[in-house]
Design brief:
With 365 residues, this protein is mostly helical. It has a single domain, classed as NCX, central ion-binding region (A middle domain of Talin 1, Up-down Bundle), CATH 1.20.1420.30. The chain contains 12 helices and 2 strands; from the N terminus they run ααααβαααααααβα. Helix 4 crosses helix 8 and helix 4 runs parallel beside helix 9. The longest helix is centred in the middle third of the chain and has 35 residues. Pfam families: Na_Ca_ex. Keywords: Membrane, Transmembrane, Transmembrane helix. Its main location: membrane. It is found in: Membrane.
């Protein structure tokens, strides 16, 4: 990258989050006309692209797997805040908001992000290579968390409907936090090497020989990353009424709104994972995908359990038969993908097909 191009990149990735945050502050709490919604959408896109850039700067500075963990946790923490805010605000349909958002995040990460990353990596090198030990362990936690928080409420009998009783919700929250803490400890300390990109002779990454950024640049990128993520989630919330109105006028299920918002919120991780796959760093892509799924469940459920103290109305967490089938299929296919430690276009296509089925059935259940 030439010095002029690098300077231009630094300039727009600095001002992009700032402008998006200013637009968020100016538009918050107002009725927005159509053209303003369009401008907010452009600001959201700029914030997404800037978030990816700053996440890559931080990842280069601290190394893997800490870099992918920073982006996954940052996005999830802000996403949790958005869910709690919307549920506290009340309104029709909020009882299933946490469930719909978490399930959408699992399907997007485990099928959408994994599928497109495998596709890009296999197109570049014919075979995408990654650590089966690290990815397999992360996938096991995703499946366990999803089953404990989204499947079991459908079958428990202590409370009518697909809901946990108070004691069951506390147990699920504590177990989710415990599993998330164990995952972070294993990923960053005890078995850190399981989550590092697999080196391949003759396939060196573009950034392997680049000098890491200094402390000042890394801290600046961290601040701009957090600002960009706040702008992404906040602006997504601003345009969600327009999306909701469009969904309602089209006669589509209300769960579609949660799917669309989850897609927008997870855009930074998706783009970062695809760029990592293009650089032959497939393990980084899987770290982002499975790490985001784990953080989404492991942080959301405890937060919702705490917020339920003052939330009115039921908290529906249990999935219906259609989504249970998609979750089971995702778990089986993901295990078959991860175990060999190698994947081709075939596996990428299968995951993308499941993701397409999820999106289609969300619009037409």
């Amino acid at each position: 990258m030439s010095s002029s191009t690098a300077a231009m990149t630094r300039q727009w990735t600095t001002w992009g989050p700032v402008v998006a945050a200013i637009a968020l502050g100016a538009a918050w709490g107002r009725d927005l006309p159509g053209f303003v919604v369009g401008l907010i959408a452009l600001c959201l896109l700029a914030a997404v692209l800037a978030a990816v850039h700053h996440a890559e700067v931080i990842a280069h500075r601290v190394g893997e797997p800490f870099g992918s963990l920073v982006l996954a946790v940052a996005v999830t923490v802000i996403e949790v805040g958005l869910i709690v805010t919307l549920m506290v605000g009340g309104g029709e349909g909020t009882s299933t908001y946490a469930r719909d958002t978490v399930f959408a995040a699992v399907m997007i990460t485990c099928n959408g992000i994994v599928g497109i990353s495998l596709l890009v990596g296999a197109l570049r090198n014919r075979v995408a290579v990654f650590n089966a030990e690290g990815s397999g362990g992360a996938l096991a936690i995703v499946c366990t968390l999803a089953t404990m928080t989204l499947v079991l409420p459908t079958f428990t009998t202590s409370h009518p409907g697909p809901e946990f009783s108070g004691v069951q919700l506390i147990f699920a929250a504590v177990a989710s936090l415990f599993l998330y803490a164990v995952f972070v400890g294993v990923q960053t300390v005890r078995h850190r090497d399981y989550f590092l990109p697999v080196p391949r002779p003759g396939h060196e990454s573009e950034d392997e020989h680049a000098a890491p950024p200094g402390d000042r640049e890394a801290w600046t990128s961290l601040g701009l990353l957090l600002l960009a993520l706040v702008a992404v989630v906040g602006n997504a919330k601003l345009i969600s009424p327009t999306i909701e109105d469009g969904v309602e006028s089209a006669g589509l299920p209300k769960a579609v709104v949660g799917v669309v918002i989850a897609l927008m919120v997870l855009l930074p991780e998706t783009l970062a994972a695809v760029r990592a796959a293009r650089r032959d760093r497939m393990q980084t892509s899987l770290n982002l995908a499975y790490g985001s799924a784990i953080a989404s469940i492991g942080l959301t459920i405890p937060s919702i359990a705490l917020a339920s103290i003052w939330l009115s109305g039921p908290l529906v967490l249990g999935l219906g038969p259609l989504h249970l089938a998609l979750l089971a299929l995702t778990g089986v296919v993901s295990a078959l993908t991860v175990v060999p430690g190698r994947a081709t276009l075939l596996q990428g296509g299968v995951h993308l097909s499941i993701f397409a089925a999820f999106v289609f059935l969300s619009f037409s259940p």
